[in-house]
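Schema walkthrough. Field components (list of strings):
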Amino acid sequence: MSRRRGTHVAAVPRSLAGDAWRDLRRSPLFLTSAAIILVLIAMAAVPSLFTDVDPRACDLAHSREAPSGSAWFGYDLQGCDMYSRTIYGARASILVGVLTTLVIAVVGSVVGMVAGFHGGRLDALLSRLTDLFFAVPMLLGAVMVLATFPSAVGTPAWQTIGKVVLALGILGWTTVARLMRSTVIQVKQSDYVQAARGLGAGAGRILLRHVLPNAMAPVVVYSTIILGVFVVLEATLSFLGIGLQAPVISWGTAISEARSYIRQSPHMLLFPGAFLSVTVLAFIMLGDAVRDAFDPRLR
Amino acid sequence: MTRYVVQRLGQMVPVVIGTTFLIYALVWSLPGDPFAAKCGDRPCPPTYVARMTAEYNLDDPLPLAYLQYMGNLFTGDFGQTFAGVPIADELLQRYPITLKLTVLAILVELVIGVAAGVLAGIRRGGFLDNLVLVSTLVVVSIPVFVLGMLAQVTFGVRLGWFPVTSDGTLYSLVLPAIVLGSLSLAFVARLVRANLVENLRTDYVRTAVAKGLTRQRVIGVHTLRNSLIPVVTFVGADFGGLLGGAVVVEGIFNIPGVGNMIFRGINAHEGATVTAAVTVLVLVFLFVNLLVDLLYAVLDPRIRHV
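Field assembly_structure (string):
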């Protein structure tokens, strides 16, 4: 690595992504948040690395017991080990955050690209459609969708998670579409797109090979920032009782359960609440770092 | 100005029609049984299904059913709760409280957010700047329902400074409003800071300084006024988030507003009540955004002439 940084490479032009990556590697904000997120991802992928207690092995005799040497985070209402349940809870939050972000990035990009690239009446139609979805506040809209199609206690985990992802995704894609549309309109007038068109490239090839790579940056930045928001929204919906539900283990439901016992057993709120906050903080910090790296105006 | 107002009102019409159609379609005509979840854990009684089918015209084709639904909305008929009480009556009782709560929250947001943003912005990179940036980051990452429960226990139960639950009086709404306002306080602070920093570099500020104006006047009058325009837009857009947050906060503090109605409706699995109340909040949100746009034109003369 150090040899490549030598003087003879300095003149080689870097792409925006390469430039951003070079900046990111040196940003303490990025390194801290990336480290936290890596730990969280490991937690979500292989929770047994962090605990060997089964989160579903509960003993009512331990109900709401305070933290102790044998159970660091204490026990919840059902007498399940809070530490284990908090670790296992990471999976649902990360999964909802990542999946929803993927959904809105793909849907928004496609809509925005088609509108911006095609222009004319199709653009007008798609833009008005975007305005409509944009006008419904995300939490209220998701509450409505999930209140119409709630999950019962017995619903399989993937279905419960899928519903939350869809409910958030239905209203979440609009900003990506707007961002994508405006960058595509800028990019499509550039010389290299004209050149590609002159050489006889089709619309699909121009979009995928020339427009998309150069219009990605704002979407990437927005997606990183919004991921944390989706984690909060999922937890809020679960707290309200229409997001994730048993058998899915999640921080939102744990906090919701703590509501009635917060005076006697504050540990039931403290640990899932702290994990949730740290996760959100990490994604916000990551979003800030990525935005600084991709936005040359701030340099 | 009049032309601008008329133009904006004209743009509102398709948005209101489209949004209500979107909501109606989401609730009543997505594939699946619309009554699967509207009566709690048991299946809906046939009489209820018949009543709702008639009330929402579910046997008619979607466009026709929607038109009839719109007609009902405009005549103030928002449907009935599961118990048969008109939702409009309940809403009428509850909305002033939610309005008070959100207005208080916006005040909290503006007063603390603008002050923090100005303190941070006038000395960019200084101690206060970093303090504000870090503390706003921490506040923004604690979800509003966690913050609400912590505040309730700390300031309500332990210290006894505020009532634990709310009866709708102004004082009992202060703590919930602070919790609700903290949701976007950080964004206001950052927005003010960023705009202040940018505006402090402009020519008109340099002119003001060169004229020999005091620092207070340069920042307080010349720079701040221009830096506040984006904040107005933000508050308008954020109002939707506040209404969503009101569902959570009113649930936690047991405030008898519209949000609480939604909160209870969710817990009782009364889908129809929830959707009717949410529809009203969305309409309020659209209306507030219209007001904000008009206010924007008053603040920034450049907008009017576009």
